[in-house]
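Obj.: predict assembly geometry.
Materials: sequence records (below).
Method: joint structure prediction, all chains together.
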Amino acid sequence: MKIPLLSLAKQKERLGESLNRAVQKVMDSGVFILGPEVRQFEAEFAAALQAREAIGVSDGTNALRIALQALGVGPKDEVILPSFTFIATATAISSLGATPVFADIDPISMNLDPVSAAKAVTPRTKALLPVHIFGFPADMDGLTALAKEKGLKIIEDCAQAHLSAFKGRAVGTIGNAGAFSFYPSKNLGAAGDAGAVTTQDPDLAEIIRELGNCGRVTGGPAYQHVRIGYTSRLDEIQAAVLRVKLTHLAQWTASRRRIAQRYIQDLQGLPLRLPELGTAGTKHTFHLFVIRCEKRDLLAQHLSKQGIGNGVYYPIPVHRQPVYEGLGKGLSLPHTDEASRTALALPMFPELEESEVDAVCRAVKEFFA
Ligand SMILES: Cc1ncc(COP(=O)(O)O)c(C=O)c1O
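Observations (raw structure tokens):
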């Protein structure tokens, strides 16, 4: 039996017709940019998160970049982030001429550690950029306290954390802004690149909207530009696809959590560190189900041999990437290095069958037997 790490095939089987109809409707309308689908998706996505504002953008990287720029991050500023993340978290900062400053992660949650972040603050620090890695919320209490004390902004990288919650609040609504990716493999995925920024601040929302739309004033003259902006809009076809999928997101999230619970129960007692479901309103949404194993590479080989998909996120922490050689030199982030050495993702997608989860668990147990 082959079990993929991720498959969108069953989603396509179930939603194919409604997705085709939604795309056809846009094609027939002839409106492709900033039309009713984008407006409605923004309202529906904001409602799903209980965010005051959601602004569609072209992708998750630009969601980060635009949120940072709207909050005033620019050349000479520093932004503190984890190194255990996808490269875009850092490159969004660099693209503005600002400097990414890597802090260590909490060894259990693998999210930005507020204590390590506090040690990285300098007079040039402008913002904190926590990542809710794999769907597990970062310690927003600790980070919010630090931001308050030092007068910093918070931009949440929610690319992997649609509907994740910290103490009852959706991520993306706690900091000054949240940046989402709708890359096709994400928990809410478009049929191409797409993203959104969320915020509780309507004035900030307006700046974000202008930055993503060539620096134009919303509702103003077409060729009057008030800021250095970008062509970085969510388009109508992607918004139409996302609107169809958003109606299923809560149910898909529940399925991911059910699958995770089954894994957690079945893999107890093995020499592994297992992720947590979360407690008291703090909700993991399992974009990936990531275990930690000292013999990670051997376990990965064993699973691959049996046709079981698995993946290493992330084998090289960002501060050790060739592109950040200068910033990473001499930097000691032991928990980040440990996570990169031991983390392994097991198959996770909402349509994964219980029998498939059981087969994965059997194969993992066999490895340790
Ligand atoms: C943590 C994280 N941040 C940012 C991004 C960037 O999103 P996108 O690929 O939509 O630009 C991703 C997605 O790949 C991600 O996983």
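Conclusions so far: The CA atoms of residues 80 and 128 lie 5 Å apart.
To do: check interface contacts against the pulldown list.
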